[in-house]
Amino acid sequence: MEGTIKVLKSGFGFLNVEGQDDVFFHANNLDGVEFDDLELDQTLSFETEEGKNGKDQAVNVTLVK
After folding, report:
1. With contact defined as beta carbons under 8 Å apart, do 27 and 62 qualify?
2. CA 9 to CA 11: how far, in whole Å?
3. SS3 labels along 23-65
4. CA dihedral over 63, 41, 25, 34, signed as positive or negative
5. Phi, psi for 35 (deg, rounded to 5)
6. Per-residue pLDDT of the chain in tens (65 residues, 90 and over written 9)
7. Do residues 29 and 61 make contact, with C-beta atoms less than 8 angstroms apart?
8. What is the pLDDT, as a whole number, of residue 52?
9. Phi and psi dihedrals of 28, rounded to 5?
10. Rounded to the nearest 5°, which phi and psi values hold at 27?
11. Are 25 and 65 in contact (CB under 8 A)?
12. Rounded to whole angstroms, what are the CA distances from 52 to 7, 9, 17, 56, 58?
């Protein structure tokens, strides 16, 4: 899946995915990119899995170039 960065906070953020609810991601789930290098509106590729709260979260998150 792909989504654009909508929100960046300290170590986590939310991705805007067309036609779906926003998807949470955590810095620990980034692959090949540092959290501090991310910017709003960048496109990220990811997979989803159920998080601790029962909602989907992004994992294996990479920057789309």
Report:
1. no
2. 6
3. EEEEHHHECCCCHHHCCCCCEEEEEEEECCCCCEEEEEEEECC
4. positive
5. -55, -40
6. 999 999 999 999 999 999 999 999 999 999 999 999 999 999 999 999 998 889 999 999 999 98
7. yes
8. 86
9. -65, -20
10. -55, -30
11. no
12. 20, 19, 20, 9, 12
pLDDT at 16: 97
State the amino acid at position 27 in one-letter form. Answer: A
- 43 C-beta neighbours (distance < 10 Å), count: 13
| pLDDT the model gives residue 65 | 81
Q: Which residue has the tokens 């949470």?
A: 24
